[in-house]
Specification:
alpha+beta; 1 helix; four-stranded antiparallel sheet; four-stranded mixed sheet; 33% strand
Length: 175
């Protein structure tokens, strides 16, 4: 009986020591795995920048100025770009700095030398200054590219229709 208790205690002690040793090791392996993954992800971006044949995105303009527009006016604009690299260009994400700005971009690859557009719609219901950014991420060596929209939205003028004044003596009135 005494031997069984001794073996039981020895087994439990061994398992406790093993578990206490393995738990920090699991944490260590997890942390090492995350660091390695981050390194690989960053290195993959560097490969595109080092590739001399990689696509390159070139915009005709980086800033669109609406000027002064009326509330609920036309908030649409376009940013034209060209693939000046030697491989197909793929726009992965195009995000805006605010929910009031909605970008729309081509999902298909843009071949070298070809042009396309990113359409941006700004919600002009808000009165005030416009200063928003649209970030373009792609497989280009010059990614990301930040586009800007700016301007000023003012209140619509009242659309009162002038009333025609009549001269009671000169204008015939139906009776």
């Amino acid at each position: 009986m005494h031997e069984k208790n001794y073996l039981y205690l020895l087994f439990n002690l061994k398992m406790t020591v093993t578990l206490k040793f393995l738990y920090p090791m699991k944490k260590l392996f997890l942390i090492c795995g995350l660091v390695m993954f981050s390194f690989v992800a960053v290195k993959a971006q560097d490969v595109a920048k080092d590739n001399k044949n990689a696509p390159e995105i070139t915009f005709t303009k980086l800033v669109h100025d609406y000027g002064t527009i009326y509330q609920e006016g036309d908030g649409n604009c376009e940013f034209e770009f060209k693939n000046t690299g030697k491989e197909p260009l793929v726009l992965t994400t195009v995000t805006s700095s605010c929910g009031c700005t909605i970008p729309e971009w081509p999902k298909k690859p843009i071949l070298p030398g070809k042009t396309d557009v990113i359409k941006v719609k700004y919600d002009t219901k808000r009165i005030g200054k416009i200063a928003k950014q649209v970030t373009v991420n792609s497989n280009a060596k010059n990614t990301p590219v930040v586009l800007k929209i700016e301007g000023n939205v003012i209140e619509k003028p009242n659309a009162n229709i002038p009333e025609k004044k009549t001269n009671a003596g000169a204008t015939p009135v139906a009776k």
